Amino acid sequence: MSSGRRLEGKIVIITGGASGIGAEAVRLFTEHGAKVVIVDVQDEAGQNVAVSIGEDKASYYHCDIRHETEVKNAVKFTVEKHGRIDVLFSNAGVVERQQYSILDLNLEEVDRVMAVNLRGAAAFVKHVARVMVESGTRGSIVCTTSVVTEIVGKAQHGYTASKHALLGLVRSAAGELGKHGIRVNGVAPFGIATPMLCDGSETETSKLEEIFSESANLKGIVLTARHVAEAALFLASDDSAYVSGQNLAVDGGFAVVKA
Question: Is the pTM of this model over 0.85?
Fold first, then answer.
């Protein structure tokens, strides 16, 4: 594995980049020489991340990924600002607001989750891949999947279904885009106490971390957003130059042991 700045000069879009895994990825990727466009609907948080890093390295663009026109405009903004796109980290995601039995499944919630986790990701893969193919860029596309793609029963039904569908998209897109030199991979984390899952308070974060640690296979370390961002960095960089169609588990062996 190479050392130093692993994304030097690369142009990157990170969706869901205003908080959680996405914000950590923005910080890490820019540390490694990338220029990043943060895509999110959390305007204040996204702008704060960009300002904290430096607007010469990171910029914020408001985009509701459920709407393809907004996705297309975000991609257009990136190309107009930087001239190309080398990496997409499609990380934005949501969960159902509460756990439902399959017998009482809230289909409106399922539609909302699918619209972000699958449809939004698909729109970004579509429009970024178009730019890469047209420019001849041998780019990398990384999507945040989940440990639930490897072992079920640990999350809401709609979320689980959306992540399985997303992994199918990753593998299908990898199969088509390989001829253009474009790699497509997933990164599948175990449970993390991100703002998506908690209210952001230290008490709630600590409580969730304790719950996840109790059920984790790998003891002595708590999974953080930074760990997932580092895995995404590997897949985004040339260190993984011949890796495509994979679902890199960042789960401390949980799925292997529990399966």
Answer: yes
Q: Cα–Cα distances in Å, from 226 out to 84, 141, 229?
A: 26, 19, 5
pLDDT tens sequence across 15-32: 999 999 999 999 999 999
Catalytic residue, from 61, 100, 159, 242: name it.
159
Is the predicted pLDDT of residue 123 greater than 70, yes or no? yes
- The verdict on whether 159 is a catalytic residue reads yes
- Report in angstroms the alpha-carbon separations of 138 from 177, 184, 186: 10, 11, 17
Q: 215, exposed or middle or buried, with CB in 10 Å at 0-12, 13-18, 19+?
A: exposed
Q: Where are the domains of the chain?
A: 11-245
Distance, in Å, from the CA atom of 25 to the CA atom of 63, rounded to the nearest integer, reads 18
Which homologous superfamily does the CATH classification assign to the domain defined by 11-245? NAD(P)-binding Rossmann-like Domain (3.40.50.720)
Share of the chain above pLDDT 70, in %: 94
